[in-house]
Amino acid sequence: MRLHGFREPGMPLGPEMTGGPNEVWSYGEEAYRVPARYLRLREHLKPYVLDVMRQAHEEGLPVMRPLFLEFPGDQAAWTVDDAHLFGPGLLVAPVLTAGATARTAYLPAGARWTDAWTGAVYEGGATVTVDAPLDRIPLFLRDDARLPVAE
Where is the Glycosyl hydrolase family 31 C-terminal domain (predicted)? Predict the structure, then answer.
């Protein structure tokens, strides 16, 4: 089997490996707070993540789901290609444009959605625009979904 260059002991250092600091804490407190916030969120959602992984294993459902998988009767959900559901209860609308500070996202009909960061509640079947600063990925909680979380 052919070895790939990155596995060889004599691999040359490229321009991306300058030897400079690359740990998140090397960039100051503000940069450190962002991943720390998401690590806390991940731990809080651990029971939900485990449940979604169980569904993937036992039922073959994908972890990252297109909106139409949970909302097949919503025609608009079939056209969304820039957001996904993480399991049945979390809608993730990542910011895909550099420098953007707001994000417009479609929330599928048939459920109410709560902005995970602000607590604002939206009726499904609508497009909403939410703030999306660099340190916040737009995330919406489906009101009728079971969402086990750690205390």
Answer: 60-144
